[in-house]
Write a structure and sequence with these properties.
With 275 residues, this protein is of the alpha/beta class. 27% of the residues lie in helices and 22% in strands. The relative contact order is 0.18. The structure holds fe (ii) ion (FE2) (2 copies).
């Protein structure tokens, strides 16, 4: 296979009882079905709030079944709970083994690896960082193995949270936004042993595409909604959309897509979904 095409969708925030964002998901799934990618990656937050309602995950699973292409899902904080963060930050709804198991039963493991078009493509579960769960240590060991086994091939990593804002070493920022500093340094050291060229994520609900230390960082836009600047400072593009990738022997082509048919929801709509 000389090329491998992926559609990344992220932060769909689906729920049967809060269906505000279903329309935008349908635009994304219609786009993916017309684009005919080899794979769809959902980079997390399939649910509005699965830690409060298990049915959000069931509903999201039904929605994902409308995709013609095979898909892989990576858990987000609204799917399995959040990880502790910098500066002793403890989330109100922490990740735990039961939530991980519930998500995995529907969507499979958030850690996966596949070889395609000369690349190694790896899914990483950011929600495990600093959790102290056995799954966190197991992921670290597994990532070490996967990156060593990539043997110089270009590597693309997909994760719910961004690795960084602008640098590996930077002042500790919003504690729940990025991979926290301690696991970030460990992950960066593992990545240095391999030919990592791309780190793609979701979570921030802003679209961004920048290069740090030779690695391209792509923040996928949310499908569901963006937040106003007075609620969340703007660092990227605040539009709803998705991302297409074409991996090949000469690199990867990346394009953020912002379909006109998607609705830019008012903040009142977002608040209603989380009321
Ligand atoms: Fe999200
Ligand atoms: Fe998130």
């Amino acid at each position: 296979m000389t090329s491998f095409r992926i559609v990344q969708i992220s932060d769909t925030h689906l729920s049967r009882v809060h269906p505000q964002f279903v329309g935008n998901y349908e635009v994304a799934s219609d786009f993916a079905n017309a684009h005919k990618p080899d794979l769809v990656i959902h980079s997390g937050d399939v649910a509005v709030e699965a830690t409060a309602r298990a049915d959000d995950l069931l509903f999201a699973k039904e929605a994902m079944e409308s995709l013609d292409a095979p898909y892989r899902v990576i858990a987000g904080n609204h799917d399995i709970g959040d990880n502790p963060g910098n500066g002793g930050y403890m989330p109100k709804k922490p990740v735990n083994a039961e939530r991980i198991a519930t998500h995995e039963a529907l969507f499979g493991s958030s850690q996966w690896q596949l070889d395609a078009a000369g690349w190694s493509i790896i899914g990483v579960n950011a929600q495990l960082f600093l959790s102290g769960l056995a799954e966190e240590a197991a992921q670290e060991q597994w990532l070490d193995q996967m990156l060593s086994a990539s043997n110089g091939k270009p590597v693309a990593m997909f994760c719910h949270k961004p690795l960084l804002l602008d640098a590996i070493e930077e002042p500790e920022d919003i504690p729940y936004r990025y991979v926290p500093m301690v696991p970030r340094r460990k992950l960066a050291a593992l990545m240095e042993k391999a030919n990592v060229q791309l780190f793609a994520c979701g979570h921030v609900h802003q679209s961004r595409d920048h290069v740090v230390d030779g690695i391209r960082h792509v923040w996928g836009p949310a499908t569901a909604f963006t937040l106003p600047d007075d609620v969340q400072p703007k660092v990227g593009i605040k539009r709803v959309g998705l991302v297409t990738y074409e991996f090949g022997p000469d690199g990867v082509k990346v394009e953020a897509v912002f379909p006109e048919a998607m609705t830019a929801h008012a903040y009142e709509t977002v608040k209603a979904a989380y009321a």
